[in-house]
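Wait, mind explaining this?

_____
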Amino acid sequence: MTIVVGVAPNQRGHAALNLAAVLARSSGEPLVVCAVIPTGWGPQWLRASGPDLHYLDEAAEDALEQARAHLPADITVQVAAQRARSVASGLAEIAERHRATALVLGSARTGMIGHIALSSVADRLLHSSTVPVALAPRGFRAGTGTPRIVRVTVAYDGSEQAEHFVRAADAIAAAMQAKLRLASFAVQLPPPATARMNRADEGVMDEWTGRIRASVESLYPPGPAGSSTAPEFVVGYSHDWAGAIENIDWEPTGELLVLGSSHAEPLERVFLGTHASKIIRQSPVPVLALPGPALTS
């Protein structure tokens, strides 16, 4: 098992490399740094060949050398160059070949510092990857010393499928010797929509929170002599997703947010539903998107 991270020629930031190093150190797994050389597809005149391929090969080798020089000495690193029709397909191929536990990507250059902005490559892999996809906020820095993941927070909505992702996040936290936390996000419609609701609806949020909390407790029944085995559980409340996510505390360094795939999509893919996509874009910490139960069970 490995952590795989993609790099590109003339890559300005090191957010993806920084996150990959933290994940590799935390899990004890080796790191594979890969550069994909896109050969193109379609008509012959659209495909790279001859001098163009030679230039792309050299650019990929330069990117790999710079990545290796940036990574800390305590991480076991292997580099790999891969020719493929597209960057996304090449990264997916390398990740599957190395049986990766995570494929690490950075954010688009147009994104806000400290948040995740999906590039075209990341967006495609979130719709097609058969291995977990880790996303680094733009400008992500690992911190001082020898930083590790210290807490894994898993987004939980109380559904049957969500139980699978909680178990997966529990295993990830155990492997990294990190704490586990469950988090739910409650977003209420702002006025005037709520102004039209009956006053009886004012208790809906409390009722929902109670059901979610009871669902969490059912996942972790009491231990010997009634001792609790449940991890910390928090709920973020707001009128929008940004506020709900800001409503709970986050570790300034060493936090990993785990999300599961959409219920409506094929279970062998990572594909995220609209709520998960909103959480990703508002997350102040790195995100790990997991494939569905059909792949990871």
